[in-house]
Amino acid sequence: MILTVTPNPSLDRTYEVPSLERGEVVRATGERVDPGGKGVNVSRAVTAAGRRTVAVLPLGGAPGALVADLLDAQGIEVAPVPIAGPTRSNIALAEADGVLTKINAPGPQLSAEEQELLLETVRAQSPYASWIACCGSLPRGLAPAWYADLVARAHAAGARIALDTSGPALLQALRERPDVVKPNAEELAEAVGRPLSTVGDAVKAAEELRGMGARAVLASLGADGQLLVDEAGAWFGSARVDAVRSNVGAGDSSLAGFLIAGGSGPEALGLAVAHGAAAVRLPGSVMPTPADLDPATVTVTADVPTDRVLKEPAS
């Protein structure tokens, strides 16, 4: 079982539009409503792959009730933490050329009692998990050290931790040695305090994160592919994608694939790349099923192309 923790979940509305014209009426050609949040997306991807998952998340108000109903309809077990404030609602606008505009609400503020109940719920579910994926931003009320506390408690219980967050929350959690961290290129650049222009820059930055405590780094480099750096070395994975429909949740789908495959080594990287590539071909934040994967388009190599200039340099 893969346990996911989403401290700041959301109700996500995605609209497909021909293009955005500021100040004009834009008529959507498609609409979806999905349970959102990075950990929620990981659980959705794990379920789509036919594996068991439990999603721990604070839920409040009508949006929170709808998130729970949507997850239940998808066959996802939920370990809810009741909170006083309403769960946030987010909007994504997906243009026909693949450009995505997201409007993310800040979310509710959790009280000290709600924060502790969230940690206690994770503790209660931990003995049954092969991995715990802690994902996303922290809601108001949670200090940056909250993830570090969670990683420490999970390790004390013998669980393995995958962490997907950024900024001070990531840097503080590194001291507790999470088993894998999954930054994108921008988050990786922010963590080391310098821009990344090449794949080699990303490798060096990942090695620095390992020096700060991460046992492994799974870095998403957008259209360029993904990078895995751990104690055994570095691997680079990429896949051919002919058309991008939506990249919402693609990184979360990648993390799910990585953990489903065991969470280490080039084979896990290959499944991560396959899941990410499949996700961007689907609308909104739809998670891929095994039938959507195309392993033949995936390449994983230990011959990392360090001189390759990133298509989307990170600053």
From TrEMBL:
TM helices/strands, residue ranges: none
Keywords: ATP-binding, Kinase, Nucleotide-binding, Transferase
Database matches in SUPFAM superfamilies: Ribokinase-like (SSF53613)
Matching InterPro entries: 1-PFruKinase, PfkB_dom, Ribokinase-like, Tagatose/fructose_Pkinase
Assigned EC number: 2.7.1.56
CDD domains in alphabetical order: FruK_PfkB_like (cd01164)
Pfam families associated with the record: PfkB
Protein origin, superkingdom: Bacteria
Domain (Carbohydrate kinase PfkB) ranges: 16-290
Keyword Transmembrane found: no
Gene3D superfamilies, alphabetized: 3.40.1190.20
GO terms, molecular function: 1-phosphofructokinase activity
Family the UniProt entry places it in: Belongs to the carbohydrate kinase PfkB family.
Record's protein name: 1-phosphofructokinase
Organism for this UniProt entry: Streptomyces spinosisporus
Name of the gene this protein is made from: pfkB
